[in-house]
Amino acid sequence: MLRTAIRNLLSHKLRLLLSGLAVVLGVAFISGTMTFTDTLHRTFTGLFEDAAADVNVEPASAFGAGMTGTGIDSALSSVPADLVEEVGAVDGVAAAEGYVEAEGVYVLDAGGDVADTGGAPGIGISWPGDDALSAVTLADGRAPASAGEVALDSATAEELGHRVGDKITVLTTGPRVEAELVGTFRFGEDGGLAGASMTAFDPATAQSLLLEDGRFTGISVAAEDGVTHAELADRIEAVVGDDYDVATRAEQAADQAAALEDQLSFIDTFLLVFAGVALFVGSFIILNTFSMLVAQRTRELALLRALGAGRRQITASVLVEALVLGLLGSTAGLVTGFGLAQGLKALFGQLGVTLDGGLVLSAGTVTWSYVVGVGITLLAAYLPARRAAKVAPVAAMRADLVRTARPLLVRTVVGTVLAATGLAALAAGSLGDGVGGLVGLGALALLVGVITLSPVLAVPFIRLVGAVLPRLAGRTGHLARENALRNPRRTAATSSALMVGLALVTGFSIIGASARASIDELVDDVLEADYVVSTSVGQPFTAAVAEELAQVDGVASVTQERYGTARFDGEESFFVAYEPDALADALEVTFVDGAVEGLAGEGLLVSDETAETQGLAVGDQVEFLVQNGESRELRVGGVFEDNSALGPYLVSMDTYSATGGAPLDRYVYVGVEDGVDASAVEAGIEDVVATYPVVELKDIEGFKDEQRGSIDQMLMLINALLALSVLIAVLGVVNTLVLSVIERTRELGLLRALGMSRRQVRRLVRLESVVISVYGAALGLGLGGVLGLALTRFLRSQGLTVTAVPGGQLALFLVLGAVIGVVAAAFPARRAGRLNVLDAIATD
Amino acid sequence: MTTVEQETREATSTGAVAARCEGLTKVYGDGETRVVALDGISVAFPKGRFTAIMGPSGSGKSTLMHVMAGLDTASSGRTWIGDTELTSLDDKRLTRMRRDQVGFVFQSFNLVPTLTAAENITLPMDIAGRKPDQEWLDKVVETVGLRERLGHRPAELSGGQQQRVACARALASRPEIIFADEPTGNLDSRTGTDVLAFLQMSVRTMGQTIVMVTHDPVAASYADRVLFLADGRIVDEMEQPTAERVLARMVAFDRKQEG
After folding, report:
1. Does ipTM come in above 0.85?
2. Nearest by CB: B123 against A475, A837, A838
3. Buried (b) or exposed (e) across A235-274, using 16+ Cβ within 10 A?
4. Closest partner residue to A750 among B109, B182, B185, by Cβ?
5. A573-618: per-residue pLDDT in tens?
6. Residue-range definition of the domain harbouring residue B53
7. Measured between alpha carbons, how far is residue A796 from residues A17, A425, A436, A803 in Å?
8. Fewer CB under 10 Å: which end of chain A, C or N?
9. Is A750's CB within 8 Å of B100's CB?
10. A838, B129: Cβ pair inside 8 Å?
11. What is the domain count for chain B?
12. Residue B88 belongs to a domain with what CATH number?
């Protein structure tokens, strides 16, 4: 039996290739993702270990920084210079040195533009004096030694076209610095900075520019030989006490790598989701293929049964075919996945994140690839294998194989129940306050229900849509429609891959369009100011911008906005700080209780939602604890209507500064006086902004564009990956059509003998393909529409207040469905057109 | 009826030829596997006549039909349908020729399963985008006797009914010539007789030209003339055959070959 199975596979290489491709793609995503993640982990852990000192001392955080890496934590904390000496005196310390490290330092190129870091921070550091403690290595020139000198990481220097000896301009969070570039350096062993730029000053200059004279960000410690890092850390801890965190090299590396991987984890999630989609969609293709193979081989299977093969042997022979296919597909998938990981690595390299060394292929990756690839293939082939075993031996003797169409009643009932349950759960989950679990389960039930119902729905749909075909293409069109209707299960299974892909694209499009419309509405409703100034990537910038803007003639108001994280009565949250007088000039805040004046001094404004969940009301006292350990008792002075332009907590600028908040703005809102020449004022504002290349000036439309930009970017990414699922869908259609053409060889031969031209035969196959594809697309649009609307409704509390349906785009998807049909039919149609008439009609 | 009979008389009297071939040779394979299926055959099929081609398996009778119908190409020699030489046509014109000038009845799988009987009958004209001659169509359907089954699909028809639909299809477009390849091969003798009688009648009363390949002497006896093929050559022919005479001739051939 094994030999029969393998012969069967080999005799149909094309079929093998087509149905195997789905497995290959799915497994490729899984193995690629896992390989890339492993590589990322090894590289970053290695990189951070290179860059870390043996032991590091930093001011302790009052609480675990749950939002590390978001750049939102801007509370300043530092260590005094005398602590460096204390640490240096600890037994086993070879060297101890204070260092300064701060964000918001940008270098300008010769034209006065800031280097594009692609969202990565511009970092300023103090040049380390002790080689043993140095994470940087001079590449060219020398170290900066005085106030007029800086060194630059070599990648940034090269990008900006600066050479040693050039006079360069550096923007800091404080003053603008003109200095001579005296050296370039590499960071860590590999020079990898993940796209960030790094500027080094001599320690004293770094302190005064970036921090405060006589203070450091932290202390790097080198251990003497024979003293373990952990041992040394314990001794230092005993000296410095609880106010400081002491971390060994390994701990630092693990922490930093974890934080970075956390940020990059969305890539893994994305890829794994698409691995899931690919395999889900692919399983339909496999199921379809094996169903058709079994149907075509009915007589052969019956002969085997008549010759004494048991049912179990027949099932086994089909499953062995599936097993071989699964093994081959998984192997190819593993290889492809390795290539995918290589591609991702290259892509990251392009973005400035250099991952050195080879890819890491772990045993786990290999195991999972085979388990999933083979498992899915066997699972999908199981039903057809069971059906194969049910072939009666007498079928071998029958001249004509009458394929009885199995009734669709059970399907109709089960599918309807599932779909209705799903719809009900979706409605219940998304209306009102929204229940995430219900929405998820409802979406799943609806999806499975629609897939179950698909063969039932296909008949009326194709009758209806196909009604135009005879008019378009005469008898050829009529035949194409009838062919698509021949086996509704096959039509449904073929189109299901496309349906799932397009349902996802449609759903995301609706959510995306709604998010865009919501942003527009929100900006129109809430933004009171005329202009917004911020960096393009949300990095903090110097308060000097706001000060200068206030001096411009015709400017009525300037409102600064700063971010931070703190614990409010023990609950960690993001907060925003404003000058109480200026808040209303920038943003419209609707109060449920209290007023904007309640923000003044040690006042606090909370959103109605926060007030509800935290049980707060006007007059309540809230303990406000910042990461550096500073705390205040704040009094709730107002409760405002929640909207996504405002944070959950608003504190006053006084509180922010008094608790050590960095004097860096995230956004500055500018209002223009009424009745003045707007263009003159705008010119004045532009002049100020032009002197700070880090920041950009946006009018209301520009601000909307910027806000929408991130959504567009995300949608692009999602759609690019979804395009892959559509690709798999195309493979599915190709696969079915090729098998259909083979199955209908004699019929096509008859048509050719009766005078149908090659072109008409090709059109016949193409039209059938288009009908099937359009059916899949239409069903996908419907399903995606329902899911998209439900999710948009569910996300209302997240700011999706407007529901928008991108009609033009959805119509385009439908057209895309038809195009996919044409593309998928290209190869099978050619094959059908080339059929030799004699071979086709030859009686056996 | 009178018009049809007139047509018949005209066709036979003028002695016009519906299809013919000259020095037709068909060779398959090369070297050791070389098989000569047709060995320089020249034959003409006059209009309005029912010709049967007989011969044992491998005699080349099916190949002769395929090449003359434009389903297969000749290795050498020339074939005509009406005045058109097939050997000079490309695939496109050959397809059009089959569609407009040739009718087919095969042994099995004659009908497209997704179309009704009526749709199958008009299929060649539908493919061509031509309107069928309704009067003629009614007459054909009437003669075949399938009026009340026209809306049925092939799966709902018996084998004999399916072959009658196939015959009706071949007649419906009034082709120059109809080629029938073992049309009764899959039928029991009674339904086979029905189909043969019908083919015979279409020649006698409608003036149709039919060439039928068969190995059944009874089937051949319905024809006006029988050609005997052996080893790719025409070895004999017989006018006004009867089943007994045909059978006797076949047995004689077998003896000769064995001896």
Report:
1. no
2. A475
3. bbbebbeeebbbbbbebbbbbbbbbbbeebeebeeebebb
4. B109
5. 889 999 988 888 888 888 988 888 888 888 999 998 888 888 888 8
6. 2-258
7. 45, 17, 12, 9
8. C
9. no
10. no
11. 1
12. 3.40.50.300
